[in-house]
Amino acid sequence: MIMTPIYKLLLVALCLLGVISCSDDVPEPAAPARTVLVYMAGDNNLAHYIGGNLKAIERGCSIENLNGGNLLVYSDSINEAPRLYKIEPGKNGGKRVLVKEYPEGNSVSPQTIRDVIRDVSEAYPAESMGLVLWSHGTGWLPANPSSYMRSFGPDGNDYIEIMELAQVLNDFHFDFLAFDACYMGSVEVAYELRNCADYLIASATEVMGAGFPYDLMIRPMFSSTADVRGIAEAFYTYYNNMSGLMRSASIAVVKNDELSGLADACRAIFSTLSDEQLWAVPLAEVQPLEYFFQKTHCLYDMDDYVQHLTGGQTDSYAAFRDALDRSVIYKACTPQNYFAQADLQDIETFCGLSVYAPQEIIPAMNAWYHNLAWWKSVYNAGE
Known about the structure:
The structure is a single chain. This protein has 383 residues and is α/β, with parallel strands linked by helices. Helices cover 36% and strands 23% of the residues. It has helices at residues 5-24, 50-60, 63-66, 110-123, 162-169, 187-192, 214-221, 228-240, 259-270, 275-279, 302-310, 315-327, 363-369, 373-378; strands spanning 34-42, 70-77, 83-89, 94-101, 128-134, 136-137, 152-155, 158-160, 174-180, 197-202, 250-255, 299-301, 328-333, 336-339, 343-346, 354-356. The strands form four sheets. Strands 4-3-2-1-5-9-10-11-13 form a nine-stranded mixed β-sheet, sandwiched between helices. A three-stranded antiparallel β-sheet has the order 6-7-8. A hairpin with a 5-residue loop joins strand 2 (70-77) and strand 3. It is globular. The termini are far apart.
């Protein structure tokens, strides 16, 4: 059959339509499973550890370990502009690539933290996100009432309180939130941050200045389902294999959606007690997890404290213990921990989380404690 020009045009049009249809059916490339941001607020006396941590991160960023994911590092050091790097994986490690340089500013301000996380989440979208916060830390304690306390930070003389940090992080959601910082493994911190991440990974005591062994922790961070136990185990094993002062580490993994049950169990105990009953706990017999002051402690092992508070044989204690076991899914602690103000100290009981013990002799700290979501839920229930 001889085709007329009109038939030829129709045939060409049909072919083009087929091509266009096929191109519409091509699926978009799948998003990476995970983007992880390591946020290093190092404009302080930890600055000299940044270089070593960056090198460890690069060592850990093999193609296999990153598993197709994105690793970003925000680094703010003394006398340097903050920079955002992407670690491009290689066969035997990664390479730092500068993504953005920020103007000099306060890296622990709520706005800066929010802006950097948003920059990363928008530029490197993924099915899920992990966050590591790197700096000094003193848990929920108020920023800078003494030279030893800094909440989270500092950047120069600036800090961020845990309530402010929660407001920032609640704008996002993470598979895991890990603190490469001291003292962030408290029930009060976990409860304040319970809505921003599935899991909290943190130490209830001090973290050695060298911080996380990142080259050993990258792989579990980027497993298809974030291996939160593996992240914590890598940290603990690294320090437990050391000797002397360096054999010092505590770590826990908290399953945040179980914290409401823990709060319920604690409310049944704490909300029924008067100040006088709380103050009567023999704290000299309870395991302390910090050494900020000469005459008292603020942070105690949570299980040891509640056991002394209840006598340890009651139904309410059993319910608490069950809720704690569901909340803390992994914990580990070396036999001794190093404290800057007290050298090595024995750790005889460790449940994974610290808790505050209200005391008559520190009324200002008691008053500050009333700002926390944990106190409002557990102590102040019904008021």
